[in-house]
Amino acid sequence: MIEQAPQRERRDHDGWPLWEVFIRPRRGLAHVHAGSVHAPDAVMALRNARDVYTRRGEGVSIWVVPSRHIVASSPDEKDPFFDPAADKVYRHPTFYVLPKEVRQM
To answer: pTM above 0.70?
Structure first.
């Protein structure tokens, strides 16, 4: 079963919504969830995320997403949710040979 965050925004005592922060540490790598910040809008969320999560110059790109827009599967139902993929071996790249030029796989 897929869990969806409540449609109402989660807010702290100041009434600011919660934003999820994703940081790309170096060029060519994927964004990784770094944490959360509270902010009144997207611009302030970016600034707060920069100040909190990239103080030592770790990032080259930041994404902020309102938490209310995050939809996730339930860890309790991982077996039934992911089982259909296990019976289709053609979906798994186990029989492909990667060329030496391919990186980050």
So the answer is: no
